[in-house]
Write a structure and sequence with these properties.
seven-stranded parallel beta sheet; 14% strand; 421 residues; Rossmann fold; single chain; alpha/beta; 2 domains; 41% helix
Length: 421
């Protein structure tokens, strides 16, 4: 089933399921509610979700997703008591959802702005937080026509941003006059355009950092990759994670030009159509699929190994010589480069990384390389393969960068504690 079909079929009957959970108790459950767009945002919010579970063990947690790529993979997570798709953001859906769930606290991760949910939460005086947010000057908040989005910012009790530049951008937005100086008769209907578009004089913003750093560090302590998988690896090996068709074109050429380098491909999507496309593209040498290798007795490490199972990537990076992270030729941008970096591995990725602060930081520290064409990719791979000392230093720099940026989760949790009902 395609993800587009899952998007709609997954929501069929969900009001009945929500009512069965939240409408059947004599007293409201009042859960902590975290909303994530997709799997990437879940991984970003996961450290905070885990910390809430530990700090408030007697409270319930509701987790919602917008996309099937998050819901389908994490619908059974133990970090939440209930996992649902978020109903579409309409006045009726938002009102019905909030009246039924009655959240004690709401947490939105990174880029989640839903007008009717946010205004509904504010109307109900529910503490509402935006965490690990990263703002850029090209976003709609900073455009003349972005008044509606700026208004949504006022619905948050507190906004936790990743970096100082995000805080400065928010501070650059027009601030409303202090309440005492405002005309007594001023209303949204009679306010001037400047007043209507203005933010409160004190928009609550804290530079907390990115919770993903805490997440990747928490999972780095032990090697949990299956032994059957480790036996299929050989040195040197390039682990290419979360890859897409455009990435595969580059990687095919790289496999041809670097015959001594093993390629382990971990595609972002592992549905049958995608796997067939990979098999057609990588014809020589013929790729070996992990599920097929498991059926063999003592299989030899292949030149090209395709991981057609979900959930192994973050554990694989530990065993890489070099790492390639996909998505850099997609509109949405690169996937998680912190997962390989925490294992002290140099990282390669495509040009679309402007939404991810860590990418620019690691490039400037020579711990990562972004490429726009195949020649740049090949040159970077050869440079690191021909200079082991430089490769090791780049990896060490990547690992140190991750360690130096932890701590966001506890800072956010401390700030939230005073407002937990």
């Amino acid at each position: 089933m395609s993800k587009y079909l899952k998007f709609f079929t997954g929501r069929v009957g969900q009001w009945k399921r929500l009512k069965a959970v939240f409408g059947s108790t004599p007293t409201p459950l009042q859960p902590f509610w975290m909303h994530c767009a997709s799997l990437g945002e879940f991984e970003q919010g996961r450290p905070l979700l885990s910390a809430i579970r530990e700090k408030y063990p007697d409270k319930k947690i509701l987790l919602t997703f917008f996309s099937p790529s998050g819901y389908e993979i994490r619908k059974n997570t133990r970090l939440a008591d209930y996992v649902f798709y978020l109903p579409l953001d309409t006045p009726r859906n938002a009102r019905r959802f909030l009246d039924l769930v009655k959240p004690r606290t709401a947490i939105f991760v990174k880029y989640e702005f839903w007008y009717f949910y946010l205004t509904g939460l504010k109307k109900r005086n529910v503490p509402t937080y935006l965490v690990s947010a990263h703002f850029r000057a090209d976003q709609i908040f900073f455009k003349k026509y972005g008044a509606l989005f700026r208004r949504m910012l006022t619905c948050f009790t507190h906004i936790f941003v990743q970096d100082e530049s995000s805080r400065q951008l928010l501070e650059s937005l027009p601030a409303a006059a202090p309440a005492a100086a405002a005309p007594a008769a001023a209303t949204p209907a009679t306010a001037t355009p400047a007043e209507a578009n203005a933010l409160p004089a004190t928009l609550p913003v804290t530079v907390a950092g990115d919770t993903r750093f805490d997440r990747v560090v928490a999972g780095v302590t032990q090697d949990t990759a299956p032994e059957t998988l480790i036996q299929l690896l050989r040195d040197p090996v390039l682990i290419a994670g979360s890859t897409w068709p455009k990435d595969h074109v580059f990687l095919k050429r790289l496999a041809e030009d670097m015959p001594l380098l093993q390629l382990v491909l971990v595609p972002h999507e592992t549905d049958p159509a995608q796997l067939r496309a990979i098999r057609r593209l990588f014809r020589s040498p013929l790729p070996v699929f992990y599920s097929e290798a498991l059926q063999e007795k003592n299989p030899a490490p292949p030149r090209i190994l395709v991981i057609d199972s979900v959930g192994l990537l973050s554990r694989l990076y530990r065993h890489a010589t070099l790492c390639y992270v996909g998505g850099g030729f997609n509109a949405s941008g690169i996937h998680n480069i912190l997962e390989p970096a925490v294992h002290a591995k140099p990282v390669l990725f495509g040009p679309n990384h402007s939404k991810f602060k860590e990418a620019g930081s690691m490039i400037s520290q020579q711990a990562a390389v972004s490429f726009h064409n195949y020649d740049t990719l090949l040159s970077a791979v050869k440079h690191w393969m021909d200079n082991p000392a430089l490769r090791e230093q780049a990896g060490k720099t990547a690992g140190n960068y991750v360690l130096e940026n932890t701590g966001a989760t506890q800072l956010i949790l401390q700030k939230m504690a005073d407002r937990v009902p």
